[in-house]
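Quick start: read one record
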Amino acid sequence: MSQHKMLPGNAPFPLNIVALHSTKSAKEGAQTTICDGVVLFANMSKELQKA
């Protein structure tokens, strides 16, 4: 059995990539943003990291 902490949801393994999908496309100005969650987490305040 994996020693990884399970996350809420149905994934049987830790998630490395989270993808969001919208069924309605923007008529203009649409873009895809890629975010490194590890860097994002590291730059959060310690209080927010604990939340």
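The chain has a mean pLDDT of 75.
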